[in-house]
Amino acid sequence: ELNKMDYKTKIVLVGFSMGAIIGANYTAKARESCGIVGNLSFSGTLCGQVMLDSTLPSHVHSHRVWQPALAWGLKATVIKPFLHLVLKRGITTKGVEAIGSVNELDSKLVCAYHKYPNCGAYYEDISAAGRGDAKGLARLQGAAVPLLEVHAMDDPIAVFEVAAVELVEQTENVMVLATKHGGHIGWPLGWRPTKNRWGYMMDISMEFTEAVCGC
What three-state secondary structure class fits 65? Predict the structure, then answer.
C-alpha cells in the first residue's frame, strides 16, 4: 500500500476522463491512507448519478450528438479486443452492436459484466461523491489531500453537473476549477491548437503539483 511505503518522491495523481474518475474515487475512499499529496482530475465525474438525469438540457445534447460517436469508438477500442470475455458473461454480439450511447454501454455491458444491478449502483460505486446524497457527501469529505476537479462547462460527454459543485462547497479539500469552454479533456489554445495540444492541462498540472508539494 502506498501509505506503508517510504517514498522519497511525493506522489500526485493526475487523471483524465475515466482515469480522473478512478483517481478521485480512490482519494475519497482511501482517506488518510491514500499515500499521495494531491489529486488532479481533468473532465472526471464526482457524481455520475447526474448522467442519468434526462431532464438536463446538457444531457439531451450529449446523448443525441456526442455519445453515439463515443460509444462507437469505445466498442471498437475497448470492447472488441475483449469480446471473448464479454460473450462468456451472456452478452451477445447483437446486444453490443445495438448500443448507441455511453449510458447504454454502461447499463447493458459494464453493469452486466461486473454484476451491478443497474447504472445507479455502478455510478455510485465509482463516483467520489456517490449518489450525491448525504452518504456521498460523507465519502467526498473523506478526501484528506487536495483534490482539484478541472471541468469545462461545455463538456459534451461528462456534463458539468457531474462536478457536484454544491457538494464540493461543503468539503475541506475538494475544489472545482470551472472553465466556460474546453470540451472534454480539450482546452484548445490559440488560433492553431495543434501547436499547444496539451498546453493548458500541462500548465495546470505543473502549477498544482508545485502547490501541493510545496516546491
Answer: helix
CB burial class (10 A; 0-12, 13-18, 19+) of residue 172? exposed
Q: For residues 2 and 119, what is the distance between their CA atoms, to the nearest angstrom?
A: 30
CA-to-CA distance for 1 and 95, rounded, in angstroms? 39
Mean pLDDT of the chain: 91
Mean pLDDT of 170-174: 98
* pTM for the predicted model, two decimal places: 0.90
Distance CA 31, CA 100 (A): 37
Q: How many CB atoms lie within 10 A of CB 47?
A: 26
Give the residue with greater pLDDT, 129 vs 194.
129
Alpha-carbon gap, residue 45 to 128, rounded angstroms: 8
Instruction: Specify the pairing of strand 38-42 against strand 12-16.
Output: parallel
Specify the residue for cell string 470492447: 79
Helical H runs in 91-185? 93-98, 102-105, 111-114, 119-126, 134-140, 165-168
Q: How confident is the model at residue 5 (pLDDT cuts 50, 70, 90)?
A: low
What is the torsion angle, in degrees rounded to the nearest 10, for the CA atoms of residue 196, residue 202, residue 203 and residue 207?
180
